[in-house]
């Protein structure tokens, strides 16, 4: 990975190589961590962190679901993220805050352990490959079902949830695909392993509702607002497996993946490679994050 100078750990900046935890850290054994993935973009007015307040709000909600007492306020975390990007002298980067039950007592009850917060930033290019945003990615429907809300809360962005996604990702990659699409426990489309999914059919944009068991993506929310700006008809609607195969366009979206077209699902070609709705949204998203279009300037958090 592309190492940066400093990592913010519990209120202080430490050297990248010193940002360490004990091997008996609770979260390492039991998945008791919640985290965020955020991007900082270069604009002509300097670096901005995209929708930082929304990411911090989701981090606090994830912690609340797990009854994890975060020892920092939202304002402190927002400021720490900005300070870190400045200290690391980065114009564009990925930012990963992670709150975790730290070293102390073993066993499943985490409540007497200290809660720590670390924030790292590094340069991270296109998550699904350099030319993925142009050429699209090949996907397969996973044999692993997405975690059910009765088993683990999908709206908490917790490390534990990602074990499910990791299994699906490994299966997809080992079978020669770029990414897995996961169905929920009743067989409806849920999301990618680290992205939400959108479908275009007859010029109408749909994405599974929160009740499908998705993580409520901040990019997904951005896209629905941009679709409204562009007068693209859009709905929250369940998608079935066969509706993936018959889509005019499909794309994945997330902070890391941004907007990535899907060019194939299980051997079925999606669209003709033009993907006009996806292209319009990709360009609107790029303009929004880079501060070219300032209609939603409240999404752009300047470093000072
Ligand atoms: N679903 C899952 C499972 C994810 O890991 C992510 C990435 N955080 C998303 C959806 C997209 O969320 P966001 O747009 O907030 O990055």
Structural overview:
There is one protein chain. By secondary structure, the chain is of the alpha+beta class. The chain has 2 domains: 6-122, 2-Layer Sandwich (D-amino Acid Aminotransferase, Chain A, domain 1); 132-289, D-amino Acid Aminotransferase, subunit A, domain 2 (D-amino Acid Aminotransferase, Chain A, domain 2), CATH 3.20.10.10. 28% of the residues lie in helices and 28% in strands. It has 8 helices and 17 strands. The chain has helices spanning 26-30, 52-65, 74-87, 132-135, 159-174, 218-229, 241-245, 276-289; strands at 6-9, 12-15, 33-35, 38-43, 46-50, 93-101, 115-122, 137-141, 179-183, 189-192, 196-201, 204-207, 234-236, 249-254, 258-265, 268-269, 300-302. The strands form 2 sheets. Strands 8, 9, 10, 11, 12, 13, 14, 15 and 16 form a 9-stranded mixed β-sheet that branches. The longest helix is centred in the middle third of the chain and has 16 residues, at 159-174. The radius of gyration is 19 Å and the shape is globular. Bound molecules: 4'-deoxy-4'-aminopyridoxal-5'-phosphate. 4'-deoxy-4'-aminopyridoxal-5'-phosphate (PMP) binds next to helix 6. 4'-deoxy-4'-aminopyridoxal-5'-phosphate binds at residues 37, 165, 191, 194-196, 215, 217-220, 254-255.
CATH superfamily of the largest domain: D-amino Acid Aminotransferase, subunit A, domain 2
Shape: globular
Q: Please tally the β strands and state the result.
A: 17
Mean pLDDT: 97
- Succession of helices and strands: EEHEEEHHEEHEHEEEEHEHEEEHE
Helix segment count? 8
Ends distance: 28 Å
